[in-house]
Write a structure and sequence with these properties.
Layout lengths: L6 H10 L9 E5 L2 E4 L2 E5 L12 H14 L7 H4 L3 H14 L3 E5 L2 H12 L5 E5 L4 H10 L2 E5 L4 H10 L5 E6 L11 H10 L2 E6 L14 H4 L11 E6 L9 E5 L1 H10 L1 H4 L6 H15 L2 H17 L6 H6 L2 E2 L6 E7 L1 H13 L2 E2 L2 E2 L9 E6 L6 H25 L1
Parallel strand pairs: 3-13, 5-6, 5-7, 7-8, 8-9
Antiparallel strand pairs: 1-2, 2-3, 4-10, 9-10, 11-12, 12-15, 14-15
Helix pairs in contact: 2-12, 4-12, 5-6, 5-10, 13-16
Length: 407
């Protein structure tokens, strides 16, 4: 029997474990609504936290960029150069996050898997939060540095690891906002440890840029560590596909460190540059974000509405079933339900009600913590969030009745 024959039974095993994933065919319908596999749905699955993905200003910027630059970029920026739009974007990104220099990559995942191996290698050590995003994990593995994973958000555990390390180069790697739990890292605490142990911090702010800090400048700005307070010991990374609403990623920080990344990151050197039309859209998005306080207020209002509506103390059904929202003040609101099958059944029951909320299962989250990952947006209305809250309360009550009847 060839090993190629193993794929079918292995896929069957995933299905039995409720771990088989399915892609959906979608198209936007305006606001937070989209057509999913041909059916109109109210979506709570998108990371488009400010609703900018379909913003007319961004669409116009893409159209103007296509007319000026065409569609493709042709080659690596190290071979054929990068466009004036991409060059301007890097300057504007650095100014927006209030750090000395920025480098723009074609994708967020590519940013992390390129930056980490550029910074450390054999003989060096990486200290990674256990709940870091997969791109940070993969970048760490590609570097061939020794990786230690400290308990989530446990800075005492991290301090012990750093104190025991004999490596010359130490890299602390952490999400700023954790993508499946929605909590925020202790950024000043990470910096203090970096200073005490001659380490560098790589901070992934994919879910903070645009929605946190003054004018949406991100989690690092929210911590007061940009501008005059910026530290060369923090290298800041973010994607441009979430609150920014477009695509790509970037890294920003000390100009010398960013120059080293430019010279050594393989996912930058050996990849075709991002099209200039996307850079133009991102530039338009940065302007919208800087003046978008009303959008951030709308988002925060919807977060508060959801949390109040799904508080187990205010609704006995939720409390009885043991479902609970993880503590989060961000757009990521995880409703932990436990078993994979329960998460999938809830997702399907919501789908039948015209609500699209993704079920998240291992290995994305630890075993036994399957959840609905509710992603909120400024595009959601008060009535739309109320419809989700009402549906989840109804489903919790149904589960309670089913348990009582079984007993």
């Amino acid at each position: 029997m060839s090993w190629l024959d193993e794929f079918s039974p292995r896929l069957n095993e995933l299905e039995l474990q409720h771990l088989l994933r399915h892609r959906r065919v979608v198209e936007p319908l305006g606001g937070a609504r989209m057509r999913v596999d041909g059916e109109p749905m109210l979506a709570f699955c998108s990371n488009d936290y400010l609703g900018l993905a379909g913003d007319p200003a961004l669409v116009q910027a893409v159209q103007d960029g296509a007319k000026r630059y065409g569609v493709g970029s042709g080659a690596s920026p190290m071979v054929s150069g990068h466009s004036s739009a991409n060059a301007a974007l890097e300057d504007e990104l650095a100014a927006f996050v209030q750090l000395p220099r920025a480098l723009y990559f074609y994708a967020g995942f590519a940013t992390n898997v390129g930056v980490i191996p550029a910074l450390v290698g054999l003989g060096d050590e990486i200290f990674a939060d256990r709940l870091n995003h997969a791109s940070l994990i993969d970048g760490s593995l590609l570097s061939r540095a020794h990786m230690q994973r400290y308990r989530h958000a446990d800075l005492e555990h991290l301090a012990q690891m750093l104190a025991a390390s004999e490596a010359k180069r130490k890299l602390i790697v952490s999400d700023a906002v954790f993508s499946m739990d929605g909590d925020v890292a202790d950024i000043p605490g990470l910096l203090a440890l970096a200073e005490a142990h001659d380490a560098l911090v790589l901070l992934d702010d994919a879910h903070g840029l645009g929605v946190m800090g003054p004018q949406g400048r991100g989690a690092l700005a929210a911590a007061g560590l940009t501008g005059a307070n910026a530290s060369r010991r923090i290298l800041y990374m973010s994607t441009l596909s979430k609150a920014v609403g477009v695509a790509g990623g970037f890294v920003a920080g000390d100009a010398t460190v960013v120059e080293w990344v430019l010279q050594k990151a393989r996912s930058y050197t050996f990849a075709t540059a991002a099209p200039a039309l996307l850079a133009e859209a991102i530039r338009a998005a940065l302007r919208r974000i800087a003046e978008g306080e009303a959008l951030r207020e709308q988002l925060h209002a919807r977060i508060l509405q959801l949390r109040r509506g799904l508080d187990p103390e205010s609704h006995l059904g939720l409390g009885t079933m043991g479902w609970h929202l993880l503590p989060s003040d961000t757009a990521i609101q995880p409703l932990v339900v436990g078993e994979n099958a329960i998460a999938l059944s809830l997702m399907e029951a919501l789908r039948q009600r015209g609500l699209w909320v993704p079920a998240i299962r291992p290995p994305t989250v630890p075993a036994g913590t399957a959840r609905l990952r509710i992603a909120l947006s400024a595009a959601h209305t008060e009535a739309e969030v109320a419809s989700l809250v009402g549906a989840l309360r109804e489903l919790a009550d149904q589960q309670v009745r089913a348990v009582l009847q079984a007993d």
